[in-house]
Specification:
Shape: globular
CATH architecture: Sandwich
Radius of gyration: 23 Å
Strand content: 35-45%
Length: 337
């Protein structure tokens, strides 16, 4: 829509006619400016963002009928062996594979993806994960590496789309070890906001970086509250990466992830209820969802989605992070089959 204000009529020279002309010109210019200025969230926007009902369980019980598993080299039976639904909404990746399977051999035959059978555009998706003991495939290159893809438009191995990374670099320490919440873009253009090489919201002074190559690192901070400035999160508050070969990283405990996706407008990554990444301006507005199997044993649990009936401004979520339904609710989500 062309929002350029029309040229005002020629200005009269005298009196009331001049005042009327000035008023009309000012109203026209103000209307055009309001059309271009992004609106703030309404009360209805805030209510829709924090609505806790309407989530659909994508893995009800042992049912994977909403998904299509694939592996790099192998048939459907091999793919089903990689991704096993073990009950209670859990997908166990590499459950029956031996520790060290094809480790650093360069073959990576059971790299895999579990793709949804339908596409999604505007939604809140939440899931939990925890690491197991086994190391496989190209573990030496990427350590504990898995993730959730969204806006997948080319479902190959690896797919093209956007990824919420689930990763721990056991060679690093403290905040540098955790890559969970990083954003990886393959074939998708976007604008990312950062400071010091890590995500920082534009409202907090993050610099706009359009289409920078590589991984978009998650922040090690969280917002204070509604409208608050980001508060640095001390490294001591971050889970320590496991380094012993018999100890899963992050203590083998469940971590809780969520992504808010608004078509082509923006995506917000959250980890344990805190905002850790933000990007906007995508050139794709919908796609498949996918869970990744790559270098290590991992379990995904409570994968649930709530589709949104209309677009919401990002502030509807960022202004009330603590009230968002981004942590698992067990039980209660209905299932999608």
């Amino acid at each position: 829509m062309d929002t350029t204000p029309p040229d005002p009529a020629p200005a009269p020279r005298h009196g009331r006619a001049l005042l009327s002309w000035l008023a009309a010109a000012l109203l026209t210019t103000a209307a055009a400016a309001l059309a271009l200025w992004p609106r703030g969230p309404t009360d209805a926007d805030y209510a829709l963002a924090r609505q806790a009902t309407g989530f659909v369980a994508l893995v009800p019980g042992r049912d994977l009928s909403a998904w299509r598993p694939v592996v790099r080299h192998g048939d459907a039976a091999a793919a089903r062996r990689v991704f096993q639904a073990t009950g209670d909404g859990v997908i166990h990746v590499f459950r029956d594979h031996p520790d060290g399977f094809e480790r650093d051999a360069g073959t990576n035959s059971h790299h895999g993806m579990l793709y949804s059978r339908r596409t999604y555009s505007r939604f809140i998706l939440r899931f939990s994960y925890r690491w197991g003991h086994k190391r496989l495939h190209n573990y030496g290159e990427f350590q504990h590496d898995a993730g959730l893809y969204y806006h997948v438009f080319d479902p190959q191995l690896w797919p093209r789309g956007l990824e919420y990374q689930v990763r721990v670099d056991t060679r690093a320490e403290g905040a540098e070890a955790s890559h969970t919440g990083d954003l990886y873009a393959s074939g998708v253009r976007l604008t990312w906001y950062a400071q010091g090489g890590r995500s920082r919201l534009p409202r907090a002074g993050g610099e706009a970086l359009p289409n920078q190559p590589g991984v978009y690192r998650a922040a090690a901070w969280a917002p204070k509250g509604p409208g608050g400035e980001p508060e640095p999160q001390p490294s001591a508050a971050l889970p320590a990466a496991g380094t012993a070969t018999d100890t899963p990283p992050e203590g083998g405990r469940w971590r809780h992830c969520a992504v808010v996706v608004m078509g082509a407008d923006y995506a917000i990554h959250l980890l344990d209820g805190q905002v850790v990444n933000y990007a906007e301006g995508f050139n794709h507005d919908r796609g498949l969802i996918g869970l990744q199997a790559e270098t290590a044993e991992v379990q995904y649990r409570d994968v649930a989605i709530r589709e949104l009936p209309r677009a919401l401004p990002a502030a509807a979520f960022l202004d009330q992070v603590g009230a968002l339904p981004v942590l698992p609710a067990r039980p209660g989500a209905r299932s999608e089959r």
